[in-house]
Amino acid sequence: MAKEYEASSIKVLKGLEAVRKRPGMYIGGTGLAGLHHLVKELVDNAIDEAMAGFCDKIRITIHKDNSVTVEDNGRGIPVDMHAEGKSAAEVIFTVLHAGGKFDNDTYKVSGGLHGVGSSVVNALSTHMEVEISKGGKKYELNFKDQRSAEGLKEVGPTSKRGTKVTFHPDPTIFETIEFDYKVMKKRYREFAFLNPNVTIVFRDERSNAEEVFHYEGGLSEFVKYVTKNNKLMTDVMSVSGEKDGVAVDIALAYTDSFNENLEGFVNNIATPGQGTHVSGFKLAITKAMKDYIDKNGKAADKKINLTGDDIREGCTAIISVKVPEPQFEGQTKDKLGNPEVQGIVSSVFFDNFYTFLDENPKAAQLIIDKATQANKAREAAKKARELVRRKTAMEFSSLPGKLADCQSKDPAESELFIVEGDSAGGSAKQGRERRTQAIMPLKGKPLNVEKARLVKILENDEIKTLITALGTGFGDNYNVDKLRYHKIIIMADADVDGAHIATLLLTLFFRHFKDLVLKGYIYIAMPPLYSIKRGKQKIWLQTDKELEDYQAAHEGERFEIQRYKGLGEMNPEQLWETTLDPEHRFLKKVTIEDAVEADMTFSMLMGDKVAPRKAFITENATYAKDLDI
Ligand code: 28G
């Protein structure tokens, strides 16, 4: 028996050793995102337990020593004994892929990297402490360097139920073990909105911050939260139903915004790539509105042929489905593929929404009026777009004069710099590497697209030039395969004006070229503040803090400090050295961590309400730098 146990232990450790050798394969990487992934693995398990209906409280605590505890009040991980004298719990923490649950009657959190399980967390931790409360008894199971010397121990009686896991991430594996409270927080709020019966308590003992997420109102409160920076035109309406084992929950409201904002979730996982649940919603809302207008509309309204886009202008909706076996598609596995879900969502939503319209004629008329205005604007935009299209076709042979294009025709190696101001633009044109780098200088501030309808956007010269340069076309005519640069780099000063320009451009990309953001083509240049020359060595420093650290580390040595002022004050060589040269420059890739938050941020930054914008700018003093969309 002892021998057998030993043999199986060796096999097990080999499995975990594989995770330690190539952590990236299991958690995506060893940076901050990988570190956070460990917490996510555990929280996902707790969420699975909540979705199965056995748990209504999840606690997540970051401790002072950067260990993290996740605790749920579910059924507790099974403690029965397996072959070879091991408990089921020990197997879950030591055998790769045995961590997830395979009960067929529950929804699992299982897309892409999800669900690789608790054993991966153990594999990448120096220590791990597990406490299981179950059947009136409390058990402990401790690991050091992935091994449990004593196995599962019963330690006494308890009236509680649940699982509590504390892990200490291995500092030799991770680049950092400093958890980021703000980044982690978002996901927990979202989960609480999606699961109104669950309370999540998130604590950070390093700063004594604590947040309790619990939203009785569920998705309706989610919609209120998402639209808090817009003016609401209707109340929030919500629809819930179930069909063929698929649960559908939708909440929506209309705001005075020109954008639509549909956010899909499948088994609590956000689907920025949308999919069949979102298309089902779109079909149903279009059909319900059209049927309603046919039956009850005013004569004038009946004459207008509204499109789905018209009907969704200003619509904010959260579409959450629970699907037993979700199929995720697309490059980033963030698009729901199950074909049956479209019809299910569509039929659940249609009936309920049609009844709502029937019972709320005032709200119905508001939506009709909004859609009618959108339709008129769209017709006008079509004409403007025709114009742009014809011009674009002509100008392709001669790109706009303001653009200094690169020689390469290969998008993969081509870069477009959008540069604040003519003077920096001029230096950039001289300092660049002509073969692969194109420069487009911006005069003044670009148009605030958040407050303008399409017609106005297409009349704007700067935007026309930009679209022509990008090569993708616009709106219905948009084709990402025609993109001429795979790096589009926003280059603005590190001051308030520069931050504003960067934000305006990001808004344009986020609202009208979201694809480019999702694909990771948009960057922000981050010119350094200082260069240091020490002997033959030259290095660049981004911040005052880095300079202080450098000075402290090289006390008594001779070195030369140069401070770089705004872009406009650099000569072509300096601009090349600091911002253009791929060997030395710092670029920040713009990613959409959280589409819901990003949408809110833009509505707020570019919208009408002054107070939240002021608060945001004060909170994020270096705001373009940290703009987290
Ligand atoms: C605190 C950190 C993260 C968990 C449970 C509960 C059960 C379970 C977890 O079972 C094995 C395989 C398929 C059933 C299930 C307990 C059924 C009955 C569980 C967690 C057993 C896994 N009793 N809670 N795993 N399945 N919480 N929180 O990890 O057949 S993991």
Write a short abstract of this structure.
It is built from 22 helices and 23 strands.
- Described by the principal axes of the CA atoms, the overall outline is flat
Number of helices: 22
Number of strands: 23
Flag low-confidence runs: 98-105, 110-116, 621-629
What ligand species are in this complex?
ligand 28G
Largest sheet: 8 strands, mixed
Look at the structure and give the mean pLDDT: 87
Q: So, the CATH homologous superfamily of the largest domain?
A: Histidine kinase-like ATPase, C-terminal domain
Q: What is the end-to-end distance?
A: 56 Å
Q: Could you estimate the helical fraction of the residues in percent?
A: 40-55%
**Alpha-beta classification:** alpha+beta
**CATH 2nd-level architecture of the largest domain:** 2-Layer Sandwich
Report the sheet-strand fraction: 15-25%
Radius of gyration (CA) equals: 28 Å
Strand order of the largest sheet: 5-4-3-6-2-1-7-8
Total count of domains: 3
- CATH class (first level) name of the largest domain: Alpha Beta
CATH topology annotation of the largest domain: Heat Shock Protein 90
